[in-house]
UniProtKB/TrEMBL annotation:
This is Stage II sporulation protein AB (Anti-sigma F factor). GO terms for biological process: negative regulation of sporulation resulting in formation of a cellular spore; sporulation resulting in formation of a cellular spore. Residues 36-140 form the Histidine kinase/HSP90-like ATPase domain. Transmembrane segments: none annotated. It comes from the Bacteria. One of its GO terms (molecular function) is sigma factor antagonist activity. Pfam families: HATPase_c_2. Keywords: ATP-binding, Kinase, Nucleotide-binding, Serine/threonine-protein kinase, Sporulation, Transferase. InterPro entries: Anti-sigma-factor_SerPK (IPR050267), Anti-sigma_F (IPR010194), HATPase_C_sf (IPR036890), HATPase_dom (IPR003594). The keyword Transferase applies.
Amino acid sequence: MQNNYVFIKIPSFSTNESFARAAVAAFCSSLNPTIEEISDIKTAVSEAVTNAIIHGYEDEVGDIEIQCRIKGQMVEIIIEDFGCGIVNVEKAKEPLYTTKPELERSGMGFAVMETFMDELIVLSEKDVGTKVIMRKTINSRK
């Protein structure tokens, strides 16, 4: 099986979150995932894109880049913004930690991503942006 990939660039409008989720799910469909596996991926993508919109760009509009790669039965999803970045990634990954309590943010985004994906890597630099790398192996039902 050949490795496949897709690259999508969207503006950080909240209306694009559902598009990103659906596009990644459609791309992953070639691996014949279960409904649960595709739901896990869609949820993780939603969290990552929402974080980029709300925290990465705050009240500005910027680009969000989404890269997906299929390597065998593993899908790698990279979601990157070029916004304000995260000063302390480990603190940001703590459940219930949020920098936006006034927006009723739960602070569970990274915890959700970690729960639904096999691997989560968060790379961030203040005033440069954040890159979220997620990997999940799809158990083939073929």
